[in-house]
Amino acid sequence: xxxxxxIYVLSYVLVGCGNxxxxxxxxxxxxxxxxxxNVVPVESQKxxxxxxxxxxxxxxxxxxxxxxxxxxxxxxxxxxxxxxHAGDLIIGLxxxxxxxQRAQSExxxxxxxxxLNVAQAKFASDHGTxxxxxxxxxxxxxxxxxxxxxxxxxxxxxxxxxxAASKNVQAxxxxxxxxxxxxxxxxxxxxxxxxxxxxxxxxxxxxxxxSGQAGSQPIVQIENLSRxxxxxxxxxxxxxxxxxxxxxxxxxxxxxxxxxxxPIARISHDIxxxxxxxxxxxxxxxxxAQVTPGTFASVEWPIQRAYRTxxxxxxAITTDLQRTFVIRVHEGKAEWVDVKTGVTMNGxxxxxxxxxxxxIVIRNATDSIRAGTSVEAHGK
Length: 380
Hints:
Elements: H1 2-17, H2 20-24, E1 35-41, E2 43-65, E3 71-76, E4 83-84, E5 89-94, H3 96-136, H4 145-184, E6 187-189, E7 194-199, E8 206-207, E9 220-235, E10 247-251, E11 260-271, E12 277-285, E13 296-313, E14 318-319, E15 324-330, E16 333-345, E17 348-353, E18 360-362, E19 375-378
Parallel strand pairs: 1-19
Antiparallel strand pairs: 1-18, 2-9, 2-13, 3-5, 3-8, 4-7, 5-6, 7-9, 9-12, 10-11, 10-13, 11-12, 13-17, 14-15, 15-16, 16-17
Helix pairs in contact: 3-4
């Protein structure tokens, strides 16, 4: 009885070892009926779709207003939220030392002008004497040659003094002009139309380069809100085909369900090495100041290709954790074809690999359909 049982076990083991299908659990392609699968053709078309990208809304112009000279903050006409126009007087400073500098510069200019007048008068007198002697010297024996030479040299020296005095006057005028320019810095005016978004100091504060901690912060900050920049970091895979003046739509959280439009205005043409993105700016005219700078935006970024690429349904792409592939049906057999995926458009995904338009792939791919499996295609 034991001999019969041993023979039975040995026969079962031998049968199992000789059947590869029993070993790996996959269906045999040599025996049994083909597996029925639904298939679709690989399509070729030009990519033309949109992709949602995050963006940042920033002011078109923003400036921190610092004083150019040291002085006391005497007057400030604006506060946070104030609207200003270019050229409006917004801040007034006082600097008593500039009054003394002006008086000193005016006195120096008057002194230089007086010296110039003296030098010009002496030159006119000596030059006249020289001309008189030169005319008399035409008659032999009337004027000694040495007297004529001395008169000529004296006139030349006077001319040099006049030139030096003229330069002193010009230097004094430049110094006075410099003081006048410094005095003009005591009045700070708005550089452009905008809104005051920040105010740090109040009347009485000492401001300027030598004013300690107060000098390290701006008095006010002004932003131009009528025109905004929508800065879009575009991934490098989607930068192809970007064109200036192309209209783009975007939305912001403050206005759910509402879409804004803006053209592409500036393209950096440079990929950031850390983020692998390219900065692109939309130019948005925010006439009614609805959109607030600093907010995030969602941009419907256009993605287009000038050439045709291949598309399959998203379910036709599968993975076994080592490779991404589609399953092509060729002469009744399943073939795994490695692919790289691109953009999804209208429910179909762009694929790049050893495929041709019109070839048949399984619609719902799975790694349980092994390469070489006999299949019967339906639905093409």
